[in-house]
Amino acid sequence: MNALSTEMAASSGAAVGVFPAVAGLILVIGLVWAVRLGIRSRRRESAPPRPEEQPRLPESGPTREIREMREPDEVPHARDESERLTPHQLHGSGTSSSRRSEDQKRRRWG
After folding, report:
1. What residue ranges of the chain have pLDDT lower than 70?
2. In 3D, which of 95, 105, 97 has the Cα closest to residue 74?
3. How many helices (H) and strands (E) does the chain have?
4. pTM
5. Is the dihedral of CA 102, 105, 106, 110 positive or negative?
6. Taking phi first (over 0 means left), then psi (-120 to 50 degrees means alpha), and beta for anything else, what does residue 94 get?
7. Which of 58, 72, 61 has its CA nearest to residue 101?
8. What does the DSSP assignment read for 25-63?
9. Is residue 71 helix, strand or coil?
């Protein structure tokens, strides 16, 4: 080896050692900036509600769940097989509707 190639090998080894240090420094600066930005945004947010601002139960007490058996409405059929129904032709403007069933016994698998 001559002196020039030895110098180039030594200088490239130094550059390889400096690059990770610079990259690490940039990474640390970016993380510190992100944390400071997060702290600033948290300070701008409104405070959590105080205990007197929390929701309260109604005077009548807690509301209860109502369980009842429902029967679906029948879907109207088109007059002709080639004709299709549009949503405004369906009951309930296209949303499924139901009515209270006469029999309120729950069906069980037998």
Report:
1. 1, 3-15, 91-97
2. 97
3. 1, 2
4. 0.38
5. negative
6. left
7. 72
8. HHHHHHHHHHHHHHHHHHHHSPPPPPGGGS----TT---
9. strand
